[in-house]
Amino acid sequence: MEPAVYADYAATAPLRESARQAMMPWLEREFGNPSAADTYSRAPRRAVLEARERIAGLLGARPDEIFFTSGGTEADNWAVKGRAWACFRGRPGHVVTSAIEHPAVLEPCAFLERFGWNVTRLCPDREGRISPEALRSALRPDTALVSVMAANNEIGTVQEITALANVAKEAGAAFHTDAVQAVGHIPLRVNDTAVGLLSASAHKFGGPKGIGFLYVRHGLALEALHHGGGQERGMRSGTENVAGIVGMAAALSESIGEMAQEQVRLESLRSRLIGRLREKGMDFVINGSERHLPGLVSVSFAGQDGRTLVYLLDRKGIAVAAGSACHSQEITVSHVLRAICVPDKYIKGTVRITLGRESTEADADRIAEEIAGLVR
Ligand SMILES: *Cc1c(COP(=O)(O)O)cnc(C)c1O
Question: What gap in Å lies between CA 241 and CA 213, rounded to an integer?
């Protein structure tokens, strides 16, 4: 059996050695509670403070604009619900989002609808792009939030976040971006934009699972999601995940440090993989846009079943993802692929391949080879 190939980086990335090492003291000896008053609290408090400064610096934010959460899902839920609560004036308001968001944004929006809120879901074009003009015409005086992801996790399309945030700003609406797939992978500096809220998750850039953050622009009104002991300046109660926070800062620092190089390398691996697939003479389409995440390939094969391909590839030691989910016998094609109108002939045969820092040219060749063997 040939060595295993991991090509599902959009699901999660392996922990970076730098992050693991940075975390060790906080898992082993330094167990103090950063919010306590005793001697044991000092080192962890300092570590959390330094991690916050480091992360803020890497994103062009202020340290007091970074709030640690349990990951991307919590940060997204907090942005959506926290804005709705902060803007509630005795009657429900309005939220604008896109039809291709992650469930961590779509579900909180649907939750708000149960309480009478109005939600506009903007449709993307065939490449998955949300147009600033469409956003402009969707805005209302009572729009509490606009939430559009920075980069899509299924097809890799990168949005014009700066333009979209400007449109929201002109109308006086707060702008949130789920940047979980973007942070650590493509350049992003919040102070260069009108972004008010930004979600990130450590395990998508080589940090540990169960830790992330929400950037909240200074002065933006946001209600807390967790109420309790008052940690994170009263905005996010709960004892700090010290090891996670420190590991996330180390991983972010390393991924941003090698980003320029990795972008070029992954882009070339991506082209190589697509080229190899083409050489095999298979009938497929590549989903997404010119502006995309460097290591993500969403490919739809005519007349195939994506889930079967994923299962068979997994048996051969190759880990990738499908473009559909299975809910009790019924096959549901992903909302993202539907929204970008992938033709019927191809839509069910979608596979998402995501390459990352440990991926090699041999991996790309092997993936193409095995897929060709199965599709034939
Ligand atoms: C993974 C992911 C999330 C969820 O992040 P978790 O830290 O796993 O909760 C949210 N949004 C996008 C775009 C993602 O890819």
Answer: 12
Which pTM value belongs to this model? 0.97
Residues designated catalytic: 326
Query: Where along the chain do the CATH 3.40.640.10 domains lie?
Result: 17-257
Q: Is the pLDDT of residue 328 over 90?
A: no
Structure tokens at 273: 């993989």
pLDDT of residue 376: 84
Please determine, looking at this structure, whether the domain spanning 259-375 carries the CATH number 3.40.30.10: no
Query: Which residues does 289 contact at the CB level (< 8 Å), separation at least 6?
Result: 127, 128, 129, 155, 156, 157, 158
Distance 181 CA to ligand 1 centre (A): 8
Which atom of ligand 1 lies nearest, measured to the CA of 202? 7
- 102 CA to centre of ligand 1 in angstroms: 7
User: How far does residue 177's CA lie from ligand 1's centre (Å)?
Assistant: 12
- Model pLDDT for residues 26-74, shown as the tens digit of each residue: 999 999 999 999 999 999 999 999 999 999 999 999 999 999 999 999 9
Measured from the CB, is residue 104 less than 6 Å from ligand 1?
yes
User: What is the location of CATH 3.90.1150.10 in the chain?
Assistant: 259-375
